[in-house]
Design a protein that fits this description.
Helix content is 34%, strand content 21%. The chain is α+β, with helices and mostly antiparallel strands. It has a single domain, classed as Aminopeptidase, CATH 3.40.630. α2 packs antiparallel against α3.
């Protein structure tokens, strides 16, 4: 297992988190795939749209966002939310910088979030990821922790 240190994110981590978002979702995000298909949309590059999608709701509240520090740098981040009514924890956006893949950092992040869910007395956990080969590592990580497929979907797009 990785020797990554997990801690709550703060404002000073935003630049590193943004770098991780761009590096980790390069070629994987729907925003990037849309841009490849149609060109830059509304003069906003996919990187800016992806960063806004991931970080748009955090404002100043970092309580549900963790970073993983490894070898002196922020190597990954993970977000979560809780549906108290349904006793379900939702693993949100999470990523490790591609330069640090294969170090067990993603596993430490997921293990941390699942521990929080258990401490809160939740009964269920869920996460979403892609089915393409580029998301195979994420699927392996989730399955290693006991997640099993619930549903599959496909994203469509078209010109109007």
């Amino acid at each position: 297992m990785s020797k990554a240190n997990i801690r709550i994110a703060n404002q000073a981590d935003l630049a590193a988190i943004k770098d991780i978002i761009v590096a980790a979702w390069d070629g994987r995000s729907e925003d990037h795939l849309m841009e490849k298909k149609y060109g830059v949309i509304e003069n906003v590059p996919w990187q800016q749209r992806m960063i806004a999608s991931v970080l748009g709701g955090i404002a100043e509240d970092f309580s549900n966002i963790f970073v993983a520090e490894f070898n002196g740098r922020v190597a990954g981040f993970a977000m979560y939310s809780v549906d108290d009514k349904n006793k379900t924890g939702i693993v949100g956006y999470n990523a490790v910088h591609p330069d640090m893949w294969g170090q067990g950092i993603g596993s430490v992040q997921i293990e941390n979030i699942l521990g929080i869910f258990r401490q809160k007395g939740l009964k269920y956990a869920k996460v979403m990821t892609g089915l393409d080969e580029l998301h195979a590592g994420a699927r392996r990580t989730y399955e290693k922790f006991g997640f099993t497929p619930l549903a599959t979907y496909v994203a469509y797009s078209m010109n109007l």
